[in-house]
Amino acid sequence: MKQNKISIITLGCSKNTVDSERLMSQLKLNKFDLTNDPNQADSVIINTCGFIDAAKEESINMILSTIELKKKGKLKKVVVAGCLSERYMNDLRNEIPEVDSFFGTEAYEGIVREFGGNLKYELLGERIITTPKHYAYLKISEGCDNPCSFCAIPLMRGLHKTKPMDQLLAEAESLVRQGVKELILIGQDTTDYGIDLYGKRNLAELMNKLSEINGIEWIRLLYVYPSHFPDDLMNEMVNNTKICKYIDVPLQHISDTVLKSMRRGITQRRTKELLYTLKEKIPGLSLRTTFIIGYPNETEKEFEELCSFIRDIKFDRLGVFTYSIEENTPSFILGDPVSQEIKEERKAILMEIQKEISEEKNRSYIGKRMKVLIDSLDNDYYVGRSGRDAPEVDGEILIDTKSNTLNIGEFYHIDIYDCNEYDLFGNLPAAGGFDRE
Predict the structure, then answer these.
(1) Per residue in 363-401, pLDDT tens?
(2) pTM to 2 decimals?
(3) Mean pLDDT over the full length of the chain
(4) SS3 per residue for the chain
């Protein structure tokens, strides 16, 4: 086992991925060896998630399994960082004393010093990409100012902090030099970008400037907060061909009773107005959302409202979480009266509704030609995505390797000939017969 070989294990969301990529770059600049395999490492850093119960359990289990490697003499050092550590650091220290050090979120300097290195401040935006090299996440802000009753993110990530535009442009140019063609913009609330630093929400300006970077072909927007969607962003999405006609807008619920208790700052009427406006002003828009099922004051009535709303809007993509009670959040005092069994039943109902919608939408693409970015090769299929698909969470376009020869990380026009509930099947164009998307 080689001295000072470090492995970073990343759990949770894409925002954690970016944090780990920055940390990896700093460690490499300090001449440490990195490995993806903890079994080949001298030390392990676990970048934890603490968002909901399932994520916390996964993080704890990962810490315990890594500690076992240390007890067997296979590791010399275990460092825990990230959201879970930020939120429960004292508890973790008491419960798992075998961990050598605990750090919170974005604790780059402390972690690098833990290993005897020094933070390279001038290169803090540099990253070692762990996604396929043709796409990368660009974290444009940190923290959140929204007062959602169920959410512990402000406890772990703090209030909203905009990352300066010039730093983001420099980071994007660095990513392009590594081969990135698609930028996926992320943050706890991307629509608040600029409000604290520039005195206005200027996400549209940022996206416009990013689109001017040579080499960027797609820009995708995630984590849009619905109550303050900037009007100029709609115009930018319509007129800028590099911006995918795709918006991820986590709505969480639609019942006014639930929305008020959740402190979402928006009503059912305003939510519908926003969605109808987006669909009207941005032709071909794909909408993704997420909902929370089993919130304490969600009765059958509120759940039926949500079902009807989903049938009406027909989202392109939809995810569902079951409510997780979180200490030190405003909703904690409401308890957790909806049983896990009922939560799971309601989740299954929503996903069945969405499955039918998704299949119906997919059928509408049969006979059309789509621009597709090839992500990977999986057995007999190339796996690609269109502009309506974010990586890891959305559907895919599968292209048979027997009839097609493609390159990973390249764009192609693909003719769609079949589908299932979530994925499309396509081939390179033959002569004639297909319409553009």
Answers:
(1) 999 999 999 999 999 989 999 999 999 999 999 999 999
(2) 0.92
(3) 93
(4) CCCCEEEEEECCCHHHHHHHHHHHHHHHHCCCEECCCHHHCCEEEEEECCCCHHHHHHHHHHHHHHHHHHHCCCCCEEEEEEHHHHHHHHHHHHHCCCCCEECCCCCHHHHHHHCCCCCCHHHCCCCCCCCCCCEEEEECEECCCCCCCCCCHHHHHCCCEECCHHHHHHHHHHHHHCCCCEEEEECCCHHHCCCCCCCCCCHHHHHHHHHCCCCCCEEEECCCCHHHCCHHHHHHHHHCCCEEEEEECCCECCCHHHHHHHCCCCCHHHHHHHHHHHHHHCCCCEEEEEEEECCCCCCHHHHHHHHHHHHHHCCCEEEEEECCCCCCCHHHHHCCCCCHHHHHHHHHHHHHHHHHHHHHHHHCCCCEEEEEEEEEEECCEEEEECCCCCCCCCCCEEEECCCCCCCCCCEEEEEEEEECCCCEEEECCCCCCCEEC
